[in-house]
Please model this.
Amino acid sequence: MPVLVMKFGGTSVANIDRIRRAAKRVGVEVAKGYDVIVIVSAMSGKTNELVGWVNEISPLHDAREYDAVVSSGENVTAGLMALVLQEMEIPARSWQGWQVPLLTNSAHSAARIEEIPTANISAKFGEGMRVAVVAGFQGISPEGRITTLGRGGSDTTAVAFAAAFGAERCDIYTDVDGVYTTDPRISAKARKLDRIAFEEMLELASLGAKVLQTRSVELAMRYNVRLRVLSSFEEQSDEAGTLVCAEEDIMESNVVSGIAYSREEAKMTLVSVADRPGIAAAIFGPLAEAGVNVDMIIQNIAEQGRTDMTFSCPTDQVKRAEKALSEAKAAGHINYHDLIADTDVAKVSAVGIGMRSQSGVAAKMFKTLSDEGINIKVIATSEIKISVLIDRKYMELAVQALHDAFGLDKAA
Ligand code: ASP
Ligand code: MG
Model:
């Protein structure tokens, strides 16, 4: 029988009523003839509570015990969901990560999936089980310890199962009814997209559109898993939600598909560093080692052999960046006159696969911002994305203006 993966996020399993409602959706697909793999998150708020307890005991905790504690939320929901399905007379069984077994590496709290052997669950399907309810977000390390996949990791569990079992689709049930052209809380004109390409979703996910964990989209793209994002709070048709799919499966799209933003960006400038071969490596090497996620980089024109180097990173990594750079300076690897951190900036990005074939998108973006009197501090581009750093107080205005300028309120 064809396999379908259905993932329910925290708000979709927040209490027994909602688990019943989710189970009904599962029942509909079972009735259609699918063997279903249900991936569940912890009840909403649960993981935060567990993380809070661990941090209360020790901020510098043993990551193996963090995983032991934090993975437990999903175990509860998996068991409850299996019970509800059984009450509906659907043969169902719960599976914790180690029982599958979902094999990961040993990077506790941010583990990567290495393999999902399908034999155990397939055998049970063969014996008449119709639904395998799998606890999301967790796996087992080569040492036999429980691991977790990083916050939001149930999405990645779901996609990995869809790939392993060759599922027809991976439906991600959440509290929004799809992927929007921008955040509806910022622009009332935001429109739900019927389809979006993997690459675009990847940019939007990493740019702060928090619908899907970034790694889940990477995985879906690699294995060509058709991902559907939809709401568990609405009656559903087969066309509901947003399909995240390969570019070839999208007939028409706007040049720009979405406007993303990230409020938590900081701009850091190293004033007057020596302009010599190896200087970028000497700066960004230590930053990478310190785990700073550098995004945009600009190196200014040099004057008398010295230049300014500016980069952006998440606000909560500023302290770490400062430490890494001052250590590199103390060790004599780099030299700079000053290090300036500007934490009052935000990043706004236009994303769209249409940019590959159409020119003038950047010009239009800059003109739109200029018409609003918004100063651009840093610019970065990729094949399908243009990002700018601006003063944070103009972020909403910039998102709205760009959404209007690219006509995103209307379908292509
Ligand atoms: N419960 C975990 C979290 O809140 C994993 C997930 O829901 O995706 O991050
Ligand atoms: Mg999530």
Notes: Residues 9, 152, 155 surround magnesium ion (ligand 2) (CB under 6 Å). The chain has a mean pLDDT of 94. Residues 3-175 form a domain with the Carbamate kinase fold (CATH 3.40.1160.10).
